[in-house]
Structures are given as structure tokens and as C-alpha cells.
Design goal:
CATH class: Alpha Beta
Number of strands: 5
Shape: globular
Strand order of the largest sheet: 1-2-3-5-4
Largest sheet: 5 strands, antiparallel
Strand content: 15-25%
Distance between the termini: 31 Å
Low-confidence stretches: none
Number of domains: 1
CATH superfamily: HIT-like
CATH topology: HIT family, subunit A
Radius of gyration: 14 Å
Mean pLDDT: 96
Number of helices: 2
Length: about 110
């Protein structure tokens, strides 16, 4: 499989405005933000879609969620509220086939999302 945009960001072949990184997770500002804060949180392990998560990935997926909550607290909008979104496949809005979590905050978010 050809490397995705996110694989290239992890490898530092493409620049990104990184806001968090550890051994398993990378978080960076979205280049097309849909809210005042819009951060993409990705595992460094390549997993194409939510359908491809295996039981051995459960701790990693929890780490993505923990990272989102931690960033929301650090950025000061955790108490006001925020949204975490993961899209799956074309009809779900997924455009990069490397799972990723959108952390959106800094304004009131409408429902349904669209």
C-alpha cells in the first residue's frame, strides 16, 4: 500500500503544525479547520479505517481519546465542551485512509453535524 498523507507527516516528509507527539500518537492542527481549534490526532501505527482496528489496538485507540481530552483541557475548552469525530470510509466522510480523530472546540458546535 502506498504511504498516506499522514504516513508522510509521521515520517516528516511533509510539514505539519504538531501540537503533541509521543511514541504512539501524533497530533497536529488541521490545515482546513472547521472550528477555532481543529486538531487531528493519529496513531503512528497505520490502520486504514475503523473497520480495521483489531483487539490488540484497543489500548492505542484509548490513547487517542485520552490525548483528545488532555489537549482539550490544556487548550482551555474542556469544560465548555468539544467534539471528537472519527469518520469511516467514503460515505462516512473519510478522505485519508489512516484512522484519525478530529478534535473540534472553541465554539458551540451544531447538531446534526451535516
Amino acid at each position: 500500500m502506498e504511504p498516506t498523507l499522514f504516513d508522510k507527516i509521521i515520517a516528516r516528509e511533509i510539514p505539519a503544525d504538531i501540537v503533541f507527539e509521543d511514541d504512539e500518537v501524533l497530533a497536529f492542527n488541521d490545515i482546513n479547520p472547521q472550528a477555532p481549534t481543529h486538531i487531528l490526532i493519529i496513531p503512528k501505527k497505520p490502520i486504514a479505517t475503523l473497520n480495521d482496528i483489531e483487539e490488540t489496538d484497543l489500548a492505542l485507540i484509548g490513547r487517542l481519546q485520552f490525548t483528545a481530552a488532555t489537549l482539550a483541557k490544556q487548550l482551555g475548552f474542556a469544560e465548555d465542551g468539544y467534539r471528537v469525530v472519527m469518520n469511516c470510509n467514503e460515505n462516512g466522510g473519510q478522505s485519508v485512509y489512516h484512522i484519525h480523530m478530529h478534535l473540534l472546540g472553541g465554539r458551540r458546535l451544531a447538531w446534526p453535524p451535516g
